[in-house]
Amino acid sequence: MAETDRSRVFTKNVKRIVVKVGTAVVTGKDGRLALGRLGAICEQLAELNSDGFEVILVSSGAVGLGRQRLRYRQLVNSSFADLQKPQNELDGKACAAVGQSSLMAYYETMFDQLDVTVAQMLVTDKDFRDKDFRKQLSETVKAMMKMRVIPVFNENDAISTRKAPYKDSTGIFWDNDSLAALLSLELKADLLILLSDVEGLYTGPPSDPNSMLIHTYIKEKHQEEITFGEKSKLGRGGMTAKVKAAVSAAYGGIPVIITSGFAAENIAKVLSGLRVGTLFHEDAHLWAPVVDTTSRDMAVAARESSRKLQALSSEDRKNILLDIANALEANEKIIKAENDLDVAAAQQAGYEESLVARLVMKPGKISSLAASIRQLAEMEDPIGRVLAKTEIADGLILEKTSSPLGVLLIVFESRPDALVQIASLAIRSGNGLLLKGGKEARRSNAILHKVITDAIPKTVGGKLIGLVTSREEIPDLLKLDDVIDLVIPRGSNKLVSQIKNSTKIPVLGHADGICHVYVDKSCNLDMAKRVVSDAKLDYPAACNAMETLLVHKDLETNGVLNELIYALQANGVTLYGGPGASGKLNIPEAQSFHHEYSSKACTVEIVEDVHGAIDHIHNHGSAHTDCIVTEDNEVAEIFLRQVDSAAVFHNASTRFCDGFRFGLGAEVGISTSRIHARGPVGVEGLLTTRWIMRGKGQVVEADKGVAYTHKDLPVLKRTEAVENGF
């Protein structure tokens, strides 16, 4: 189900909400109350109450909490000899009675701190058999809702007529999950949220790495396919009971979400329409087909389409890129309108200036993107190039050829133009592609994806490029190491680190862009001011913008440092100093040298010489792009040889570190990795190699049937090979 569909379901006319918290959420592993987790849930409910929602809470945990307290009391009152004897199982009803008072005391204390009044509502299965009770219950709850009181329901296990209510699953309701479903129907709730200790309903046990989260439950599809794991050791229902209760409520007309009570703000996310947990709804089969398009389906479809793309002639692949360039220009007004809506929404939401700057598609951007795609199309076809050729034996020829990697997963933030660059590179290199852009660029990404995929011929298919619309799909995609061949995250340090820690798939990218410009004592002043100003001001939010200015100590005394500082400050750059520069320049001290401002700000530090600059870069840089400004070629060579970064420049702005400016046509990202590709990653970085052997019936026969020559043969250019009939 699409993220927008869920938004329509939950944000339209939702007023009364039933929230059920399971025992595993209420208590920790030791049976004690999970104070922090439960407190966070109470804060969410209090906020909803304040916003005018009618909140009803159904809470488990009394039996487990009472058992823990009684066991402790039993331990305190027992002698050593008593403890050596077999311990009797504690009575469940007694546990319920003791635990209920403790549980309610916590809720009263917590909600009182949040200026919310709560009321305890203990019910039994027998109560609901009485029509008058049900009528009175509805009237009482309605009265409390008017006074903004949150009723806290729990099954009154202590006086239940069932012999073992924590085991007996008969009756109108049989646990707090089914009680929550019953109350939702009885009290005509608009939404039921069941909070569990897992993200939602999975295709198998959540601990199984092959299990996948089911975002939308479709009874016709899932009821026979799901394998449940062990039930909670703390509660009595487990996921089986939750699904049964959710289906009961959903087919009675109440939308239900099963999601984690461990994750912060999940209740708020559900009400915002975000795809969190598993949705149960009576109309779910209308929103999603019985056969779901899973993350795996999307990746497999991209691989199949990539093979069709590779089977085309070089000229046909080139024409696809030219068609995309033309389509972008033809749809420029529509693209700009959608981008303007994204920018306005980001500004209204209060996003940082640097993020909004990356989001904007400035005038001329579409033309620039189209030009880069055409440049890419005119480059030599990278697929199937012969890189090396060897005669293994007489008449047995081996070739090493370039080949697409397969399927790429690119996760990027903010910049919608990145989608165009990445898609064009994937097509040129013959790869399938899955794209996940930032939510702030949702409209821009959607229209760009549509324009591009509509231009791809049906013989290849638009599924060559899949657009992932929800962040919640990423964990499933990162498990597909048998289908996806490379992940490239483009974004914050946090994003890159999270992805690297969450997948077995190779990850290519950079976490930070801490770029340095070192101005040596032998610099040309005018050149230094131009390079420094451009490196910082041309596009401050870019990952190749200067974040630290290093200056030789001698420039402090001859006035050059002051000229550089003035050039930056005159253009609105906020300066922070290292320990050596802060006091001398009378500027605030930087909290850290390893900081990416992504705005009109930078750090300044004074160093001893070129070796001090190199040491500083190695200690505080991110191995992205670093530059030296000097007229001394010997010093420049020391810097170029010894700085261990992906790109190192002499007398040139760091802003040149870009795939288009390098003549790569475009870039899928900039890599600071040391394996496979480094620096701006163009077509070459998206290729691997294959071995092609052509023989005349040769066999090994324990190496007796062949006379090895292992002779290198000349590699003909593609045009020469065609002319010679190869």
Automatic annotation (TrEMBL):
Catalytic activity, as annotated: L-glutamate + ATP = L-glutamyl 5-phosphate + ADP; L-glutamate 5-semialdehyde + phosphate + NADP(+) = L-glutamyl 5-phosphate + NADPH + H(+)
Keywords from the UniProt entry: Amino-acid biosynthesis, ATP-binding, Kinase, Multifunctional enzyme, NADP, Nucleotide-binding, Oxidoreductase, Proline biosynthesis, Transferase
Domain Aspartate/glutamate/uridylate kinase: 15-260
PROSITE patterns: GLUTAMATE_5_KINASE, PROA
Pfam families named in the record: AA_kinase, Aldedh
Membrane-spanning residues: none
UniProt-listed Enzyme Commission number(s): 2.7.2.11, 1.2.1.41
InterPro entries the record matches: AceGlu_kinase-like_sf, Ald_DH/histidinol_DH, Ald_DH_C, Ald_DH_N, Aldehyde_DH_dom, Asp/Glu/Uridylate_kinase, G-glutamylP_reductase_CS, Glu/AcGlu_kinase
Recorded metabolic or biological pathway in which this protein acts: Amino-acid biosynthesis; L-proline biosynthesis; L-glutamate 5-semialdehyde from L-glutamate: step 2/2; Amino-acid biosynthesis; L-proline biosynthesis; L-glutamate 5-semialdehyde from L-glutamate: step 1/2
One BP annotation, GO: amino acid biosynthetic process
Keyword hit for Lipid metabolism: no
A single Gene Ontology CC term: cytoplasm
Superkingdom of the organism of origin: Eukaryota
Sample GO molecular function, one term: ATP binding
Aldehyde dehydrogenase domain residues: 298-564
Keyword Transferase found: yes
Role this protein plays: P5CS plays a key role in proline biosynthesis, leading to osmoregulation in plants.
Family (UniProt): In the N-terminal section; belongs to the glutamate 5-kinase family.
Identification of the protein by name: Delta-1-pyrroline-5-carboxylate synthase
Species name: Brassica carinata
